[in-house]
Automatic annotation (TrEMBL):
Residues 34-528 form the Glycosyl hydrolases family 39 N-terminal catalytic domain. The keyword Coiled coil does not apply. One of its GO terms (biological process) is carbohydrate metabolic process. Gene3D superfamilies: Glycosidases (3.20.20.80), Glycosyl hydrolase domain, family 39 (2.60.40.1500). It comes from Steroidobacter agaridevorans. This is Beta-xylosidase. The gene is xynB2. Keywords: Glycosidase, Hydrolase, Signal.
Length: 563
């Protein structure tokens, strides 16, 4: 069965009917790829690790575009999507800025008595809960009244895109002057959350301290200072809610010697708060980032570096017997490091290079978890939105001015995957070892991930290359076995250079920076992930074959359901 719905003429006709101009491009070369899926052969569970997101700027969650995007995230899998944000305890009036946020949760009277005010932080968590999202609650950063920063150190930074990254390091990054007051702040906040949202609800949250304390930009104390702060925080959380899910440390990368010390401390060190051996640990977390470069005027992604970080973090945890089977959340997992840094080198984030990278990298992260025999529970994409910024400015985000980007539609495809992974092979899928050694630098990575949900089958296909250049589209011959009896209905979902892609539609409009109401509606329509129905698939002796076009840097989901 041949399925080739994508044609430049068809796409341009659709855009023209919406009032959008479109210039056709010449057809590219095409490769033939053989993909086999044994729908009767399960190879294990596929945990829905993609359900985690986060951002530096917590206050955006209560703004118009932030609320709209939270609603879209919550709809992916209501009550099972988690959001992590920095700056939830920072001192300030709640006005957002790049890589900044505040809630004024803690201040002190003139004589040093604590004053707690949960108004702003409640509004943020309320926005999560109203949209079916739960907190992955980061405890931090240091309130101004508790900061041990040297006299004269500014508290709120004045960083903006283009400035040196380390300029974000100001008074919020220091250890507390009083660990006792800090512990009481964490206890009171947790107790308040239990009273406001209910014990059963808060038991579903994740609690972790700080961010990337192995990185001097975020932590101006010693490793031992951090271990102490971690112990005090965990004890305070558990004092308010003994069943709270606690963990950490959300280090940058695999964490180096800092992570080694942390793992040893929580496994068998003397607890700074209780005096006992070890620290309660329900999950462990680290970060993994790619390292893209600009080569001959185009972006070349660094997926190899990203996957090496993942493997390094898994290896560290697996090497500690007391912790080897603990759940793991990769607390930030992204193509590169700075979500708030726009510019031409980051324009790839608007289009399908980012979305196809996401599909290709998640597939390998699932594979690495199996190879390392670790309990992977979450992979958190540090990407949300930036309110009232130029359209398609190149921030690492899921939506721009309330319009979804292609990458968000890949998470929608993930949400359609079943819980059981099936045996699947592609003749053009780059091996894990090769992609970790050199990325995707030769032929494209045309890969497959297949799952089953009851009697229905889902086949995820992607055509990814590290280089943001025109290249070869693929015709995938999808050979299915183990289907049993009866024809199957076929639904295809495309995220490609033309479909589920508002960026292409915006460029076809002439890249307006102030779209009018009609243009906005057209962009919303262009961003939507819409099904393409094909005629039923004829099954003979449990086997069937269909051809699917997978353009360069595209992701396609094929759904097979009982007719």
């Amino acid at each position: 069965m041949q399925i080739q719905f994508w044609r430049p003429f068809t796409v341009c006709l659709a855009l023209a009917l919406s009032g959008i101009a479109c210039a056709q491009s010449p057809p590219s070369e095409r490769s033939n790829v053989q993909v086999s899926v044994n729908t009767a052969q399960a190879v294990g569970e596929l945990p829905a690790v993609w359900r985690f997101f986060g951002a530096d700027e917590p206050n955006y969650a209560t703004m118009k575009d932030g609320r709209k995007l939270l609603r879209a995230l919550g709809e992916l899998r209501p009550q099972q999507v988690y959001f992590r944000a920095h700056n939830l305890l920072n001192t300030g009036d709640g006005t957002p800025a790049f890589k900044w946020g505040s809630t004024n949760a803690y201040t002190e009277t003139a004589d040093g008595q604590p004053v707690y005010d949960w108004t702003i932080v409640d509004g943020i968590i309320d926005a999560y809960r109203a949209n079916g999202v739960r907190p992955y609650l980061q405890i931090g950063f240091m309130p101004q009244a508790l900061s041990s920063a040297p006299p004269g150190t500014p508290y709120q930074h004045a960083w903006r895109p283009g400035f040196k990254y380390d300029l974000i390091t100001t008074g919020w990054a220091y250890p507390p002057k009083s660990y006792e007051k800090w512990g009481e702040l964490v206890y009171q906040w947790t107790l308040h959350n239990v009273e406001r949202y209910g014990r059963a609800e808060v038991e579903q949250w994740y609690f972790e301290l700080w961010n990337e304390a192995n990185f001097p930009t975020y932590w101006r104390g010693s490793p031992e200072d951090f271990y102490r702060l971690h112990d005090v925080s965990v004890a305070a959380i558990r004092r308010a809610l003994p069943t709270a899910r606690v963990g950490g440390p959300d280090v940058a990368g695999p964490g180096g010697a800092f992570m080694d010390g942390f793992l040893a401390h929580v496994a068998r060190g003397r607890n700074y708060s209780t005096g006992e051996i070890g620290t309660p640990t329900d999950f462990l977390s680290f970060h993994a980032k790619g390292r893209p470069t600009v080569v001959d005027g185009h972006v070349r992604m660094g997926i190899a570096a990203h996957l090496k970080d993942v493997a390094g973090g898994f290896g560290k945890i697996a090497a500690v017997p007391e912790l080897a089977r603990k759940p793991i959340v990769i607390g930030e997992s992204d193509p590169e490091g700075c979500a708030a840094c726009p510019g031409p080198q980051n324009a790839y984030r608007n289009g399908t290079l980012y979305s196809s990278y996401t599909a290709a990298s998640f597939a390998r992260i699932w594979q690495l978890a199996k190879e390392h025999k670790v309990n992977l529970e979450g992979v958190l994409s540090w990407s949300f939105t930036f309110e009232n910024q130029p359209w398609f400015a190149g921030y690492r985000q899921l939506a721009t001015n309330g319009i979804d980007l292609p990458v968000l539609n890949v998470f929608r495809l993930f949400s359609k995957l079943g819980p059981m992974q099936l045996e699947a092979h592609s003749s053009a899928q780059v091996s894990l070892q090769e992609i970790m050694n050199q990325g995707v630098s030769g032929a494209s990575d045309v890969g497959v991930l297949a799952t089953r949900a009851e009697r229905n089958v889902q086949v995820l296909l992607w055509n990814y290359h590290d280089d943001e250049l025109a290249g070869t589209d693929a015709t995938v011959s999808l050979n299915l076995s183990g289907l049993g009896r009866g024809d199957r209905a076929v639904t295809l979902w495309y995220v490609d250079p033309q479909r589920a892609n508002a960026f292409s539609a915006w460029k076809a409009m002439g890249s307006p920076q102030s779209p009018n109401e009609v243009q906005y509606q057209q962009l919303e329509q262009a961003s939507r992930l819409l099904p393409t129905q094909a005629k039923p698939l004829s099954v003979k002796s449990g086997r069937a074959t269909l051809d699917v076009d997978v353009p360069r840097q595209a992701v396609v989901l094929v759904e097979l359901t009982q007719s």
